[in-house]
Amino acid sequence: MTGKQRAKLRAMANTIDTILYIGKVGITDHTVKECYDALEARELIKGCVQQGAPIGAREALTELCEKTGAEPIQQIGRRFVMYRPSRENPRIVVE
After folding, report:
1. Residue range 30-45, pLDDT digits in tens
2. Burial of 78 (0-12, 13-18, 19+ CB in 10 A)
3. How confident is the model at residue 48 (pLDDT cuts 50, 70, 90)?
4. What domains sit in the chain, N to C, each tagged with a CATH number?
5. Who contacts 89 (Cβ-Cβ below 8 Å, separation ≥6)?
6. How far apart are CA 30 and CA 15, in angstroms?
7. CA-closest candidate to residue 32, choices 47, 17, 54, 10
8. Strand 44-49 versus strand 79-83 pairing type
9. Strands 18-22, 44-49: pairing kind
10. Helix boundaries (H) for the chain
11. Which of these, 75, 70, 34, lies nearest to 57 by C-alpha position?
């Protein structure tokens, strides 16, 4: 993914709400499934690592991207953004 494509996705992510939260138990199988389903439905999602979580946002982003096949887009503080085109119904076009 090029820098220009990543910049476009970052701009799109500014307006979306955080839908994925990682809490004190860290990343579980349920969290991975929730992330996978959200990526399939929305393609671009924003997540947040809660205060008492055992891992940081960078580690969470890396691990979730590896397990779901997504691209890391941005990580600022405890928030992160990831993207994966939908396999069945792609809507976001990155050129």
Report:
1. 999 999 999 999 999 9
2. middle
3. very high
4. 3-83 (3.30.110.60)
5. none
6. 26
7. 47
8. antiparallel
9. parallel
10. 3-13, 29-42, 57-68
11. 75
